[in-house]
């Protein structure tokens, strides 16, 4: 009996240390993929650290991902400093969902950061202090890569970023639009800059791009695409990746007050103007672009947190714009302590700083973020709101909708 127990113990040890994935490895690949597709991505990620054979097996199925309708929510904590990254896995049972925190191995190199974008399970992060560092990061596998610096640097620059993937070329690209005032970092001249309405306006620009793919012979280096289009974009990262194109909103100018929707094609590397919906107020800062269920949408804000969501049903066709949702005023319980200052709650409501539209969930509810403090689900059929309360939710955060995967930028794609 003792020898039998010893054999069993030895067999278990061998499975964990040298081949813990023996049972999974013996199954056909399609069955393994089906099993993994039913697990939350956070659970799959934990299995990668059981043993080497499991990590190898799961890496081979790296395209397994969380559902776009049950995504992971990454919470970028920006108070008191921008260095925290938490997540919620909405594919788990609602009663078991807890906020968990990622540990960034490169935190010493980039103590504060902004999230440029999320695509295919990868994050692009930029240094929020000095703007000269960019990292590619998969939070579930902990893979990270510091991207090379661009050789062209400018004094007193303003940056607009974009990050995305194109299905045809199978390439990731990081887009950097630089607005600057001088010819180099050593220039002390004020040529190329002037002030208008108290804000510095930069007259010079350059578009730079970095390509990442699965090709082994690729070299990571920035390319210049020349000057940016004549219109200037809002100082924030690309708001929506749809049809392999990054989308931006332009700033109004004195002689051209009309705001425009502009896309950047990640395959052709060209800027193209996108037709806007025929609704009022799009010349002010009361709208944002968002990807909902794979379609380009414009969120148009009204007074006191009211908003309309317009959907472009056929991409690039102006006549296909239609108002899909209307969401009324709502005050989450987490903000009711500010009832003594009701006007403060709705301050800056017209530019999306009070209510952000995040995504459409599997049950058809719309996920909203209020004042960077509360998550709310809105049922468009019943017109009802529900505050989402999760254990360990940070006090202040910026939500990023993220489809988690175990892949990396050089993971081969099925062509």
Automatic annotation (TrEMBL):
The protein's matches in InterPro entries, at most eight in alphabetical order, are given as: F-box-assoc_dom_typ3, F-box-assoc_interact_dom, F-box-like_dom_sf, F-box_dom, SCF_F-box_component
Q: By its UniProt entry, which SMART domains does this protein fall under?
A: FBOX
SUPFAM superfamilies in the record, alphabetically?
F-box domain
Pfam families registered for this protein in UniProt: F-box, FBA_3
* Domain F-box, residue spans: 21-60
Superkingdom is Eukaryota
User: Which PANTHER family does the record cross-reference, listed alphabetically?
Assistant: BNACNNG10540D PROTEIN (PTHR31672), F-BOX DOMAIN-CONTAINING PROTEIN (PTHR31672:SF2)
User: What's this protein's name?
Assistant: F-box protein At3g07870-like
Which species is the source of this protein?
Camelina sativa
